[in-house]
Known about the structure:
Elements lengths: L2 H37 L6 H9 L3 H4 L1
Amino acid sequence: MGIGELLWKITSRERYEEKVEKTFYRRQFDNVKRVFKQVDEMPGSVIANIQATFLLPSSLAK
């Protein structure tokens, strides 16, 4: 393997890792947005609404 191939693999790997990280955080953000959109208009506590709607324990609803 030459220097050029090695550098290409390193930069490709870095770009891949950056893309995965951005995609991961974007998915988390989108998921939180969907959850709050679902429970935003409900009366009462947001945490209680998340628990009831998605059948989650309080530790996960927080």
